User: Fold this.
Amino acid sequence: MYNLNKYYGKGDTEVHALRDISITVNKGEFLLIVGSSGSGKSTLLNMIGLLDKPSSGKILIDGIETTKLNDSKISSFRNKKLGFIFQFSNLLPDLTVLENVMLPRQILGTNDSAKQDAIELLKLVGLEDQLQKRANKISGGQAQRVAIARGLVNHPTIVLADEPTGNLDSISAQNIVQLMKLMCKKLGQTFIVVTHDRHQFGDVDRVITIKDGRSFEGEESQRLEITA
Assistant:
């Protein structure tokens, strides 16, 4: 991405949320984006996740300039290339654990092996005994494990996690951190994680700090390109 910027509002109320940001993320990397509330870290994640558009600049994912995609192509690209884990698991309560994990594959329209892939992922996250439970009958920590499996089911280029431990107790949070790291290592899965709690994540591949919408690893930068 060249000269990534994001503005909100106009005139006296204009906020410059992101300022000339760049970063290259490599395949299989576990990357933390940290910063205080209002620093711009979640705004950046929304740009990468195609949930919002930059005011200027380019974002490249797998060589595709996502800022040029029209609205009809954005949803398809997002579902194929990106997995999401949020602070709240956002599971559909009336569906089973297995059905929730299968859902992104069904939306994509490629149901071949969807059930088996979902089962294998649920085994990896330690929930093989919860497959047929309704999502509203499991604990918060278990629900976040389901959310991780759901985020991986389409074999995305990147998993984007926005404060994934923010709604959990300390023990469950540590379990989720270790699980995401395991998925990164075992599957070669790229993770970009936004958090306000740097210390909770321990050793990671790289940490980028945002302050007032700028500063990655202490460098002013001009391009964001994701090569995962």
In short: The radius of gyration is 18 Å. The helical segments are 41-48, 71-81, 97-108, 114-124, 140-152, 170-187.
